[in-house]
Amino acid sequence: MTVLTGVAGSGKSSLATELVDQHEAIVIDQKPVSTNRRSTPITYTGIAPAIRRLFARRNDVPASLFSANSDGGCPDCKGTGVIYTDLAFMEGQEVVCETCHGRRFTPEVLAHTVDGMSIADVDDLTVEQAVARLPDKGIARALEQLAAVGLGYLRLGQSLSTLSGGECQRVKIAKELREVEQTTTYVLDEPTTGLHMSDIDALLHVLDRLVELGNDVVVIEHNLDVIRRADWLIDLGPGPGRDGGTILFEGHVADYTGYDTPTCRALADAPE
Ligand SMILES: [Zn+2]
Q1: Is residue 191 located within the same domain as residue 106?
Q2: Distance 120 CA to ligand 1 centre (A)
Q3: Domain extent at residue 241
Q4: How many Cα atoms within 13 Å fall on the side-chain side of residue 230?
Q5: How far out from the chain centre does Cα 199 lie?
Q6: 69 CA to middle of ligand 1, Å?
Q7: How far does the centroid of ligand 1 lie from the alpha carbon of residue 152, in Å?
Q8: Considering just the CA atoms, what is the radius of gyration of the chain in Å?
Q9: Which pLDDT does position 170 carry in this prediction?
């Protein structure tokens, strides 16, 4: 893990942009994972068909029954669980469907269960609960990466459009952990922005995991906890703009002592 640091405007982002332009690198940011409100951990990890097949197998009925937007969906809300009312002169409003009470399926479909859970109960499980309770190894494997990045508390039916920036970033890392077959370089621009202390720990943990798998991780960061975890530190400066662009230090964090630079002073002033 390489950390680029330095005062604002010292050239960190320019250096990272150059890196992305000249090498194969993947930028992981805090932008939303999906703007589609129907996107959930189930659709994101691609386990929806496996869950439907599990219910079909156990109950000896067609798998299509367990798809909310086809056969088994509540006819009144078309399997969305909500009714959208468009009022003249007012902003449209969403209310929970009175027929299915937001459960999205017909009562007949909800009567079919797996280990005592209906298809709607599965939507209410958290990722962590689902890994433990759904009797299907493939489903568990697909969900384990979300748990590994500290998102085990997300509900399977939760819209991903509700996630914070930090959560979106970790969902993207989970995808990389799951899909990437070849090692590559990841670039993250100030990934701790807006994160709580515990979230920073979770983020560092998954970055470590990417590095353990043989990837290079380049992080632009001011956060001292992240700087201290760097395997290689590059400090740019000395000032912003035309005073920037010079490498003030490059090497192991432990060797960055006694320099008259803002980063070095900050590291000395805030002991671990
Ligand atoms: Zn309904």
Answers
A1: no
A2: 12
A3: 1-33+163-272
A4: 26
A5: 12
A6: 11
A7: 28
A8: 24
A9: 87
Dihedral angle sign, alpha carbons of residues 262, 264, 269, 270: positive
Residue 186 has pLDDT above 90, yes or no: yes
Could you list which residues have their CB under 5 Å from ion ligand 1? Answer: 74, 76-77, 97, 99-100
pTM as predicted: 0.77
From 128, 162, 196, give the residue that closes a domain: 162
| CB-CB contact of 17 with 218 (8 Å) | no
Burial 193-217 (b: 16+ CB within 10 A, else e): eebeeebbebbbebbebbbeeebbb
pLDDT of 92? 72
Of 135, 162, 189, the domain-final residue:
162
Specify the range with the lowest mean pLDDT, choosing from 142-146, 183-187, 220-224. 142-146
Q: How far is the CA of 10 from the centre of ligand 1 (A)?
A: 55
* 225-239: pLDDT as tens digits: 999 999 999 999 999
- 135 C-alpha to center of ligand 1: Å? 28
